[in-house]
Amino acid sequence: MNKKxxxxxxxxxxxxxxxxxxxxxxxxxxANLDAMExxxxxxxxINAMYYALEESFYxxxxxxxxxxxxxxxxxxxxxxxTDPLGFNLGDPDSSYSYTPANCxxxxxxxxxxxxxxxKENDYIKSNRN
Length: 129
Hints:
Number of strands: 4
Largest sheet: 4 strands, antiparallel
Distance between the termini: 90 Å
Number of helices: 1
Structural class: alpha+beta
């Protein structure tokens, strides 16, 4: 009896399709996990800015600044001013924003810190005083 060894074309195609589907599923999940990690980094940065404003700046000055940066808020890690895509707070493409309100002569009574997230709604913190 002549028995041929090896795989048929149909078997090879089925295995290739299955492997392709697994690769697609892997890369989709990896992209989702990466986006969720960037969102967590954004939340961490906004929380650091928030607590620096409330616990450091406001306690010392009794007002909020018109703009924030590492020049006037020195208590947080300078890397947190840059979003996960490499844009600094204040850049037009940054996912971080600081919006002061009720300002007079650079002294503000209110503010809103916001991070635009990829997988969730925007993350927003506002003044508590």
